[in-house]
Design brief:
The chain has 490 residues and is of the alpha+beta class. It is built from 11 helices and 19 strands. A hairpin with a 2-residue loop joins strand 2 and strand 3. The radius of gyration is 31 Å and the shape is flat.
Length: 490
């Protein structure tokens, strides 16, 4: 039986000529950075950056961080430039720098930090062409650092002011961004509102401690003010203006030292108008409100925004260093080595406990080596039945001595930590406690006694051992440092 198909189809192939389409490959643009310090050694600086193509940022997200180099791919003829440092914040991208336009070849831009006062342009200079790559160079001077460090306005600072903030603290903070005429600054706290700082102007999911449980608040330092923004309202609650009739109930004298780093590396620089205004308002909110709570009457700030030295926190305007604090009962130069806050008996006891810990650490090293040697000897002795019994006895004794040395080291370590905490000066203890409670303003607190790398977690501050080989500890042997929260920069 033969069946016929339901339908028939015919295919006709037209003789269409093949057209060649020219495809231009994308160009690779690489930026490399070097951050030599004043000793001509390279610092590790994880610089915030955002890439711009033809003047527009590629992403509206928070900036990335670069330590050495990064690469982007672009169409030939597209201009590539960078938003750097605090200017890379999504809301502050105004000063793009180091613009290049790749055409026929890839581009490599080498950017090197340079000390001293220089007025070099941020436009990269073509140095050579090797194969398919154009090599450019550019300097990162103090002037360019200042260009890419956001200068906050009084209006921007006011946006960070919580409703209910003490009117004297509010006025003091705003006066910094209005432009101080002289130092010291007098913070005249009125007490007409609780000097407590609320949640910052961001949803909690964007904070650097995302996913961690919020620690229980100290009931003595309970937050009392509402959010700056009422969720869902879209409107900001502004602090009521001071009527001018409020009388100061507590005054804080704040002295700002004129740091040499910006002064010696920027062609035209004024601490009061160019330096302090590049510090994030949260730094001063935390500093003044904590001082008010701790009844501090005098503060000396040794360093704030500085471009060419130290951590990115200072370079991005998120760090403050305090060297001296004073209240009605005592004063303190924040230098652990001088131990000026201890009486003779306390100093002698602290020194004895510290030496005991150091000796216990050394004894543990010796015991560890003796045990490793005994273990090696025992393994070799297994080949000789006449020696194995004695070798095992030596190994067992060495193991016991190792365990004993570890226990003594742990015990002496605990005793030293307790002594260090007990001898923490009272004026610093209260000031530090107030700073650490401000989880939404203060990210880190370091001083010669304690090191808190994350104020929001449940881990207690570590003891500052002031070890020369530990740069973080050694750097903070003579001041207190605070880092402000700003998840859209760091």
């Amino acid at each position: 039986m033969t069946t016929s198909p339901d339908a028939k189809a015919q295919t006709s192939i037209a003789q269409t000529p093949v057209q060649k389409v020219a495809v231009t490959p994308k160009r690779k643009v690489t930026y490399s950075f070097e951050f030599p310090n004043d000793k001509n050694k390279l610092d590790k600086v994880r610089l915030p950056y955002a890439v711009a193509i033809n003047g527009k940022a590629v992403s509206a997200a928070k900036p990335k961080r670069v330590e050495t180099s990064f690469t982007v791919m672009v169409e030939p003829g597209s201009q590539v430039s960078l938003f750097l440092n605090s200017d890379a914040h999504p809301a502050y991208r105004k000063q793009s720098v180091y613009a290049v336009t790749p055409k026929d070849r890839d581009v490599h831009v080498q950017i090197k930090q340079k000390w001293g006062k220089h007025s070099n342009s941020d436009t990269p200079r073509l140095e050579k062409t090797v194969g398919e790559v154009d090599y450019y160079s550019a300097l990162l001077t103090g002037d360019i650092w200042m260009k890419v460090s956001h200068k906050y306005t009084e209006q921007e600072a006011d946006a960070f002011m919580p409703s209910g903030i003490d009117s004297g603290i509010r006025e003091a903070v705003l006066s910094i961004y209005r432009g101080l005429k002289q130092s010291p600054l007098i913070v005249a706290c009125t007490g007409n509102a609780a000097a407590r700082i609320p949640e910052i102007l961001r949803p909690p999911s964007s904070l650097p401690w995302e996913g961690k449980a919020r620690p229980a608040q100290n009931p003595l330092l309970e937050w009392t003010m509402p959010l700056l923004f009422n969720p869902g309202s879209g409107a900001q609650k502004k602090a009521p203006a001071d009527s001018g009739k409020s009388q100061a109930i507590h005054k804080i004298t704040v002295e700002f030292e004129n740091a040499d780093n910006p002064k010696n590396n920027i062609t035209q620089f004024s601490l009061l108008t160019d330096g302090l205004s590049r510090v994030h308002p949260r730094c001063f909110l935390a500093l003044f409100s904590s001082a008010f709570e701790a009844k501090i009457t005098q503060i000396e700030v040794s360093s704030n925004w500085r471009p060419l030295i130290g951590s990115i926190a200072h370079r991005a305007g998120l760090g403050l260093d305090v060297t001296y604090i004073e209240n009605a009962n005592s004063n303190l130069h924040i230098v652990r080595s001088k131990a000026a806050h201890l009486n003779a008996q306390q100093a002698e006891e602290a020194s004895r406990i510290e030496k005991t810990y150091i000796q216990a650490k050394q004894a543990e090293k010796v015991a560890n080596k003796a045990w490793r040697d005994a273990e090696t000897a025992y393994k070799l002795a297994k080949l000789d039945p006449t020696k194995v019994v004695d070798a095992q006895k030596v190994r067992d004794v060495a193991l016991q001595e190792k365990g004993s040395a570890i226990a003594k080291r742990e015990e002496s370590w605990k005793a030293w930590q307790e002594a260090r905490t007990a001898h923490l000066p009272a004026v610093l203890r209260s000031f530090r406690a107030a700073l650490q409670e401000k989880h939404d303003l203060v990210y880190q607190v370091f001083d010669p006694w304690l090191m808190d790398s994350e104020t929001r977690d449940d881990t207690p501050p570590a003891t500052n051992l002031i070890r020369p080989k530990n740069s973080l500890e050694w750097t903070h042997r003579h001041h207190l440092h605070l880092t402000a929260v700003e998840p859209d920069v760091l």
